[in-house]
DNA sequence: ATGGCACCATCTTGGTGA
């Protein structure tokens, strides 16, 4: 099974590019972030026509996540547990039913800038809730993964110019510590299980010719539970997508699992 | 040191992002 994560930066602006990539890459499951749309306005027919089940958790203008799947989706839930006051649409879960079932968590983790400040406090509090959900996922001892736009640069090698990110919410020590705490519960960063070394990015800013200079960062991740990590066959970043017409500032990251 | 670009809303400008 091929599963991809893709921050599309707006479904209205990206629908044609997203459809083209789906036709090329043929993922069985696509976990989307920043749909920036309410559920009713999501062009679901475009994807249902391609054989995907469509589950969205949207909101007006900002945020919003979705799961597209060619396999049946069950037990869909929306919202990250732990704060009833939080109305930002950043989390969706579903179980994909294949020859083995897989629990999928799709996230758009808060950016957190400027740091320090209330937005950074929200990011760290959100990651505490993520840690709690991650613990519960592991208790099931079933194949599970958490994927999406983590807005975390895990290591210096995951940025072309790490010094430029030193005080940024994506790279500050507290952010990386919170990410490591979650990984250290027993998750595998799928990309780093397959590829080592610098020069692998999933985001390039629209500004200052970042793509042309390859000034990128790796912030879109797939974290596998031990049971899912045992099924990992491959993980790659479709960086070439960033060079197409009207691209998102993120590109797809995909895993192939023996499911 | 700064801003640069793109998206969204309904506004031709400001909020947000990373």
UniProtKB/TrEMBL annotation:
What cofactors does this protein use? Answer: Mg(2+); Mn(2+)
Matching entries from PROSITE patterns are given as: AP_NUCLEASE_F1_4 (PS51435)
What GO terms in the biological process aspect are recorded for it?
Answer: DNA repair
Q: Where is this site: Important for catalytic activity?
A: 220
**SUPFAM superfamilies listed in its UniProt record:** DNase I-like
Active site per the UniProt annotation: 108, 149, 250
- This protein's superkingdom? Bacteria
Q: Which InterPro entries match?
A: AP_endonuc_1 (IPR004808), Endo/exonu/phosph_ase_sf (IPR036691), Endo/exonuclease/phosphatase (IPR005135), ExoIII-like (IPR037493)
> Cofactor stoichiometry and binding?
Probably binds two magnesium or manganese ions per subunit.
Q: What is this protein called?
A: Exodeoxyribonuclease III
The species this protein was found in: Pseudaestuariivita atlantica
């Amino acid at each position: 099974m091929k599963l991809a994560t893709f921050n599309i930066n707006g479904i209205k602006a990206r629908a044609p590019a997203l459809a083209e990539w789906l036709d090329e890459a043929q993922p069985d499951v696509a976990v989307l972030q920043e749909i920036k749309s309410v559920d009713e306005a999501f062009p679901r027919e475009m994807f249902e026509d391609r054989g995907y089940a469509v589950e969205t958790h949207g909101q007006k203008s900002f945020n919003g996540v979705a799961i597209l799947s060619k396999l049946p989706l069950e037990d869909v839930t929306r919202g990250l547990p732990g704060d009833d006051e939080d109305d930002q649409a950043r989390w969706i879960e579903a179980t994909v039913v294949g020859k083995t079932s897989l629990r999928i968590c799709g996230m758009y983790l808060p950016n957190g800038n400027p740091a320090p400040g209330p937005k950074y406090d929200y990011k760290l509090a959100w990651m505490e809730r993520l840690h709690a959900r991650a613990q519960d996922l592991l208790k099931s001892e079933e194949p599970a993964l958490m994927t999406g736009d983590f807005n975390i640069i895990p290591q210096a090698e995951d940025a072309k110019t790490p010094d430029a990110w030193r005080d940024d919410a994506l790279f500050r020590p507290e952010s990386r510590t919170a990410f490591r705490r979650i990984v250290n519960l027993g998750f595998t960063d799928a990309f780093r299980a397959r590829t080592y070394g610098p020069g692998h990015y999933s985001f390039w800013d629209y500004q200052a010719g970042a793509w042309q200079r390859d000034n990128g960062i790796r912030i879109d991740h797939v974290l596998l539970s031990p049971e899912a990590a045992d099924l990992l066959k491959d993980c790659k970043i479709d960086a070439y997508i960033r060079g197409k017409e009207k691209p998102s500032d993120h590109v797809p990251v995909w895993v192939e699992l023996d499911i």
